[in-house]
Write the structure tokens for this entry.
Amino acid sequence: MGFKQGFLWGGATAANQVEGGYDEDGRGLANVDVVPVGEDRFSIITGQVKHLDFDNQHFYPAKEAIDMYHRYKEDIALFAEMGFSTYRLSISWSRIFPKGDEKEPNEEGLVFYENLFKECQKYNIEPLVTITHFDIPMHLIKEYGGWRNRKVVDFYEKLCRVLFNRYKGLVKYWLTFNEINLLLHAPFMGAGIVFEKGENQKEVKYIAAHHELIASALATKIAHEVDPENQVGCMLAGGKFYPMTPNPLDVFAAQKADRENYFFIDVQSQGEYPPYALKELEREGIEVPFKKGDKELLKDNTVDFISFSYYSTRVASANTEDMDQGEANLLSTVDNPYLESTEWGWQVDPLGFRITMNDIYDRYRKPLFVVENGLGAIDTPDEDGYVEDDYRIKYLADHIQSMKDAVELDGIELLGYTTWGPIDLVSAGTGEMSKRYGFIYVDRDDYGNGTLKRTKKKSFNWYKKVIETNGEDLTNK
């Protein structure tokens, strides 16, 4: 027996990477809008350079993205043709509250998502909605300093109340924050943080982390109060760390790296700060800004399931000098000599997917949901826009087989699987369109040129067959 009946198959996107329409129908400016493609992107998303507005020196891909704001019906119809039973998408916070701190939401933004969810419903596609996917209104950054400020918890709570009430009966699967652990590695993208000169950056990150964890618990509480049918998950940038060698120092380095990765999920799933984190923060003189009732809120409102992205495993070493290092989904890693790499240097490890799933399931014993997995590659279309992407089919087939082994052979409870992304979109890490993931080719380059025409790749019909057979037929025929 492989995947159970009712297993949710689909794909995942994020508002800022697909929607565009950045200034339409009352939408306000968000952090992700002003992050450009090119060499300055990394220093901006990590909060090291203050860049809160557009300029004439850069191209900003999120402004238009792939224009799904105007084309969502066409795109959802294509997803339905593949047989999706779920579609993971995210809310643009500044579509609902343009500045973030208004008393009343923007009705035009609410109507857009209501129409989108109804379009999904038309095809029996279950929306899986990320409340914030690297997304915070710019006003909350300029006025309040982003998630470093406790007041932002209140604004997020208001957003959640509006969403859960407005979309009751349309959405039942929710994720509170996308890849919440990346706050520690891309704090401007993850929390709207720009560092001031001389401040303790680690302290700022963990203060922001506490506020997001409180906000996540509040969201979980409200979701269950509004509709007991609601299922709320957390979301981790997953990928097991291997020790570079059997040297105990390397094993310990890997354990520490894993713990940093799992810290947020430990709190969201188990309801309290783990002792290792409290001890480390204490050693560094960082005080967690607990307020009255915080500990009870965390304890009483743990998540229903654990969702995560998986692209690659990573390697940790006690001594990283003289070793090749790469970036895997914004997390630095020592290169693994036993694995091949993608064009962007991400190492391909299907067995590592199973290992990561077992690691997470052993740790939390809650249902898992794989909400991102895919291959970013350069696609070369023919004159009709068709791409013969056998490399993508192989990558996904190998990973789905490994996921199947985790369910069949290891007994892991798995709710569903959504590939990243089912249609070409703007890369969060690099801002490029040329780093393509989709089953659907979008005619657009890294600097906004192209017709935005959608064309099915070879992998489109392959994934359709995978879904039709509930993961039984992974062959490339």
